[in-house]
Design brief:
The protein is α+β, with helices and mostly antiparallel strands. It has 2 domains: 89 residues; 160 residues, Cupredoxins -  blue copper proteins (Immunoglobulin-like, Sandwich). It contains 8 helices and 14 strands. The strands form 3 sheets. It has a 7-stranded mixed β-sheet with strand order 10-7-3-4-5-14-13. A 5-stranded mixed β-sheet has the order 6-12-11-8-9. A hairpin with a 2-residue loop joins strand 3 and strand 4. Belongs to the cytochrome c oxidase subunit 2 family. This is Ubiquinol oxidase subunit 2. It is a multi-pass membrane protein. It holds the Pfam family COX2. It comes from Pseudoduganella guangdongensis.
């Protein structure tokens, strides 16, 4: 019966999408390797413990009269060393792996390579894509190309991409399993993800954080194409798409589900900055301006206090004059 269950489980797992463990991007590949190594290290403890549990239960069962009976046994130095030493070593190794990978796979860290065989110059300039999580769709702005899309992301393969990510209303999560791990998109904040895609193809992207009624349909297609195909796509989008300005964004930001792909051949300058600072709507004060004014008021208040503290009172002047006279 157990063998039948194992075979059935294996057959069911053959239909699973294994893109997380077989990704198309270098960052996701390194993350998959980290998961594999960590799992194998933990199995070094889990498998022996399960095997010994079954062995002890069978060997020391009630009707096994050949098993050694030692009711007064209570200690073994060798056994204690194995029980505590092996897990301790594995915890140390896992800690080192976690510390190293946390720094090497930091989403804000600029890429140092295209893949394991192709290093990247420190002076390289990645392509920037600005991502906005809307209710319930994704807006992608290409500031260098001057275009934008809704629910469609296209980038050239083997090209480092720097995603600048924010949200319009509620917190969301930007996730393309084939490219890299998920990263949160939050209103009024700008998060960063550096990644590179190494294999051409069409991949799935979606929100990994519940954000309301249309969350389950908040998906998009990610197209990895050659540089020539990307340039052709940009030219076609510029020729056929309309323009996205602030008024257009205000219409786009309204909640909607199953939004079809849209392309914009032009984007108003400073739109992404206005989205982050929550001042797209005319007459709204930007967060950056409010914070700058608050900082100025605090600075002026501190300066005023310092100036007041430096003003001598008549008594202070008398004491200073008396001290000078006594020294002379």
């Amino acid at each position: 019966m157990p063998i039948i269950l194992l075979i059935l489980a294996a057959l069911l797992l053959t239909g699973c999408d294994t893109i997380v463990m077989n990704p198309a991007g270098d960052i996701a590949k390194q993350q998959a390797q980290l998961v594999t190594v960590s799992t194998l290290l933990m199995l070094l403890i889990i498998v022996p413990v399960i095997a010994l549990t079954i062995f002890f239960a069978w060997r020391y069962r009630k009707n096994n009269t050949k098993a050694t009976y030692a009711p007064d046994w209570d200690h073994s130095t060798q056994l204690e060393f194995v029980i505590w030493g092996a897990p301790l070593l594995i915890i140390i190794v896992l800690g080192l792996l976690t510390w190293i990978s946390t720094h090497m796979l930091d989403p804000y860290r600029p890429l140092s390579r295209i893949d394991e065989n192709r290093p990247l110059a420190a002076s390289h300039k990645p392509m920037v894509v600005q991502v906005v999580a809307l209710d319930w769709k994704w807006l992608f702005i290409y500031p260098e190309q001057g275009i934008a899309t809704v629910n469609e992301l296209v980038t050239p393969v083997d090209t480092p991409i720097r995603f600048k990510i924010t949200a319009s209303t509620v917190m969301n999560s930007f996730y393309i399993p084939a490219l890299a791990g998920q990263i949160y998109a939050m209103p009024g904040m700008d998060t960063t993800l550096n990644a590179v895609l190494n294999k051409p193809g069409v991949y799935e992207g979606f929100s990994a954080n519940y954000s309301g009624a249309g969350f389950s349909h908040m998906r998009f297609k990610y197209h990895g194409v050659s540089t020539a195909d990307f340039d052709a796509w940009v030219a076609k989008t510029k020729a056929e798409g309309g323009s996205l300005d602030r008024s257009g964004y205000m219409n786009l930001v309204k909640p909607s589900e199953r939004e079809p792909v849209q392309r914009f051949g032009g984007v108003e300058d400073g739109l992404y900055s206005a989205i982050i600072n929550r001042c797209v709507e005319p007459g709204t004060t930007c967060m950056a301006q409010t914070m700058a004014e608050d900082a100025m008021r605090v600075r002026n208040a501190v300066t005023k206090k310092e100036m007041e503290a430096r003003i001598c009172t008549p008594n202070d002047s008398y004491v200073a004059l008396a001290n000078t006279a006594s020294k002379n």
